[in-house]
Amino acid sequence: MTFSLLHATDFADRLLYKIIPPLKAGMIVLADRYAYTAFARDSVRGVDGQWVRELYSFAVRPDMVLYFRVPIDVSLDRLMARRVKLKFYEAGMDLGWSTNPTESFRLFQGRVLEEYDRIVDEFGLDVINAARSITEQQQEVRRLVAARIPVTSVETPDEQLA
Amino acid sequence: MSNSPETAIGAPDAGQPGQYYGRGIPYLPINGYPGKLIAIEGTDGVGRSTQILLLREWLEVRGYGVVETGWTRSELMAPTIELAKSSNTLNKLTFVLLYATDFADRLEKEIIPALKAGFVVLSDRYIFTALARAGVRGVDRPWLRSLYAFAIAPHQVFYLKLDVETLIRRVLAARGMDFWESGMDLKHGDDIYDSFRAYQNRLLREYSSMADEFNFRVVDARRSIEQIQSELRRQVGAFLEQER
Q1: Which residues in chain A have their CB less than 8 angstroms from residue B105's CB?
Q2: Pairing between strand B66-70 and B36-41?
Q3: Domain definitions of chain A by residue range
Q4: Residue A112 touches chain B, beta carbons under 8 Å
Q5: Domain spanning A63-149: which CATH class is it, in words?
Q6: For residue range B27-81, what is the model confidence (pLDDT) as tens digits?
Q7: Is the Cβ pair B147, A55 closer than 8 Å?
Q8: B146 and A9 in contact by Cβ < 8 A?
Q9: Cβ–Cβ of A5/B97 closer than 8 Å?
Q10: What is the CATH number of the domain that holds B138?
Q11: Interval B147-181: pLDDT, tens
Q12: Which of A1, B62, B137, B241 is deepest in the core (most CB within 10 A)?
C-alpha cells in the first residue's frame, strides 16, 4: 500500500507542476510511463485493481497511450547487456517469490505483462511491437502520432536516425 | 463509506466495525482478529492526548494490552511530512496523499498486527481528520472516501466536540496558533486569528457532517477533563466488557 501511495504522491506532484501547466500552454507533453504502470505493478503486488484506478482518477486522461510490448526474454537480455544487476523492485524481489533476481524478474514481470494486456483492452492503448529495431518502432510511433495529433512538419526517421 | 454503495464493495460486511470500509487490502485479510480499534477524533486543542493517556492507564490497570497510534507518526513518513510542511512545495493533492501514505504505513505495521495480537488500539485521530482537512480544502469527497477504502472501520469513534470560541481560548492559552492549524495555506488573509477562526469553523462543520455517516459518539469537550474521561471509560469499558 505504501509503495502504491508514494508513487501516487510523486505522480500528483509531477501532474500539477510538470504536466498540467504545459498542457494549459498548448504544448505536447510526453510522459515516460503514466498511471497505467501503477495499475499493472500495484495489482501484481496485491493491491486492489479497482482501488488503484479510483486512486488515480485525478490524473488527466492522455490523448494517446503507446504501449511498447516486449517479451520477457528480450527485456531481460537488454537489461543484462546494460548493467550487471537487476534492481530490487524492478525484479519484484520485495514479493519474495524467488531469491534469484533473474528468476524473480521473470515471475514478476511475467505477471506485470499479463496485467498490461488487460489494461490495453480496458483503456484502448496503442501497442507497439518493441522487439523490433529502434528505427522500425520510431517509424510506427511517428505514423501513429501524426495520424492522431496535428503535427505541422515531421522529419523522416531516416534523416534523424541514420 | 459504509452506507455508500459505490465504495462498500468487497466483503459483504464491508464498513462494519473491525472490517475494512471498502475494498481493503487484499493481501491482509483481517477477519476474526481479536483486537479492538478505538478512535478519538476532534480538532486541535480539544484535549485528545490527555484523554488518551488517562484512558490508556485505566485500560492497562484493568488488564488490557493497549497500543497507541497517532496521525503522521509513521516511521516511514513522519520526517517527509515535516519537511514538506516546512517548505512550500505541498499542494492539497500531495498533502492528502502523504497523509494517506502515513496512515497506510501505520495500518500495516502497527494497527493490523496489534489487532491480530488482541490489543486495544487507541488511535489519536483517524481518517476523519484527513477527510475533514481535505474536505475544507475542496478535495472531491467521493474520491477521498474511495482513497480511504483500505481503512478499517473502528469499533468506536469518539468525537470530542468543542465550539470555536472555547477552542480559540484553549489554543491561545496553551501554545498559540500555528500556520497549518490556522489554515493559512488557504490564504484567507494575513490575520492569523481571523484565519484560525474561519478555518476551525469550517473544520467543525466537516466533522459534524461526518457524524452520522461514520457513527461518531459525540462527546461534549467543554466539560472538565475528569468528566470527559469518565464518559469515555464508561463507553469503552462497557464495550470491551461485552466483547470479552
Answers
A1: 1-2
A2: unpaired
A3: 1-58, 63-149
A4: no
A5: alpha beta
A6: 999 999 999 999 999 988 888 999 999 999 999 999 999 999 988 777 777 777 7
A7: yes
A8: no
A9: yes
A10: 3.40.50.300
A11: 999 999 999 999 999 999 998 888 888 877 888 78
A12: A1
